[in-house]
Design brief:
The complex is a heterodimer. Chain A is an alpha+beta fold. Chain A has 3 helices and 9 strands. In chain A, a hairpin with a 7-residue loop joins strand 4 and strand 5. Chain B starts with a helix and ends with a strand. The chains are: A alpha+beta, B alpha+beta. Chain B: Keywords: Lectin, Membrane, Transmembrane, Transmembrane helix.
């Protein structure tokens, strides 16, 4: 019975298809490129969103996996305001974001900001269920 | 070969006879050794033959490769770039890591300098290069083809006064030259402190203080 329960548990902790599991989250790295707004719309119907990064472990994984390519993440700000995640929670600034743009992207170098017009890749995240 | 074959057959027959004669006496025929030696020799022969074939094949590939190396600059009308640089319409380009536009092309234009902390291999000034000045539509397309999706790069185009773009060699940006090519419309605002960023599809105006990869360009040999 314990074994059955355990196997059921591990099954539900996996990420399906093209999603990659790290910690308590599944991440999706796009092959395509879009601007920030179009990237935000992508996948929003499936309970996922542009990547939210809560832990150092997730950050390290994402940066390593992004490499030299730039990827949108779910952070933006209005002029003069602080950075917010797409679910409207304010970013507790545990990592730096370079530049004066309003939309955040990530590559191996770190998290940078842009005006959001450029077509680059993006990362989505969703919790493991 | 025929002789050897004949000899082997004869020997084998003799062997067979000898064996029949010596049946029950438990004597090992000496020509069994001959057969073993022959077998070993033929094995070695086949092995040498195989090795020669493989070597010839490999050599053929090397020859092919060297031919390609010689031909490729010829295709580009005799223009040459140093190792790791890409040939783009009579010019060579090199991609550099995330920097602000100013860091990518600082101070004494048209040559770009880097902060002393940046790696020497990315030092545009040492490479005697500058951010790309794109003069023809072909050149634009050629640079765009080399960009992978998701890795845009700074080019040597910036806003001097609201609405006015200028190349780093002080030549004005003439949009009418590119009127028939929608991909050279610059997307985004053109107020002050804007610099041009190129992706595989379009050219964008970005904040000059944002960090993006740069492209260094210099004339081909």
């Amino acid at each position: 019975v314990v074994f059955a329960k355990l196997s059921k548990c591990t099954q539900t902790m996996e990420c399906s298809g093209k999603w990659i599991g790290v910690g308590k989250k599944c991440f999706y790295f796009s092959g395509d490129t879009k601007n920030w707004t179009a990237s935000k719309r992508f996948f929003s119907s499936q309970g996922s969103k542009l990547a939210h990064i809560d832990t150092q472990e997730d950050m390290e994984f994402l940066r390593r996996h992004a490499g030299t390519f730039m990827h949108w993440i779910g952070l933006n700000r209005k002029q003069g305001e602080s950075w917010k995640w797409t679910n409207d929670t304010t970013l507790n600034p545990w990592f730096g974001i370079s530049g004066i743009g309003s939309f955040a992207f990530l590559n191996a170098d770190g998290v940078h900001s842009s005006r959001g017009f450029i077509d680059i890749k993006w990362i989505c995240s969703k919790p493991k269920f | 070969m025929e002789n050897a074959d004949g000899y082997m057959v004869l020997d084998y027959k003799n062997c067979f006879k000898f064996r029949q004669k010596s049946k029950g006496r438990n004597i090992v025929s000496p020509c069994i050794y001959n057969i073993i030696v022959l077998l070993v020799c033929s094995c070695i022969g086949i092995l040498i033959f195989m090795i020669t074939l493989i070597c010839l094949n490999f050599w053929g590939k090397i020859m092919d490769f060297s031919q390609k190396v010689i031909i490729s600059p010829l295709v580009g009308n005799n223009y040459l770039c140093s190792k790791d640089w890409l040939l783009n319409q009579e010019k060579c380009t090199f991609s550099i890591s995330s920097k602000t536009w100013n860091e990518s092309d600082l101070g004494t234009l048209p040559f770009c300098h880097f902060a002393p902390s940046s790696e020497s291999q990315h030092d545009c000034a040492n490479l005697q290069a500058h951010l790309p000045v794109i003069q023809t539509f072909k050149e634009l397309e050629s640079i765009q083809r080399t960009l992978k999706p998701g890795s845009p790069g700074w080019i040597g185009l910036y806003v001097t006064s609201p609405g006015k773009w200028m190349w780093i060699n002080k030549s004005p940006f003439r949009s009418n030259v590119y009127a028939l090519s929608p991909s050279f419309l610059i997307t985004g605002p053109t107020d002050h402190k804007r610099c041009a960023l190129i992706t595989g599809n379009q050219v964008y105006s970005e904040d000059c203080n944002s960090k993006f990869n740069g492209i260094c360009q210099r004339d081909a040999f």
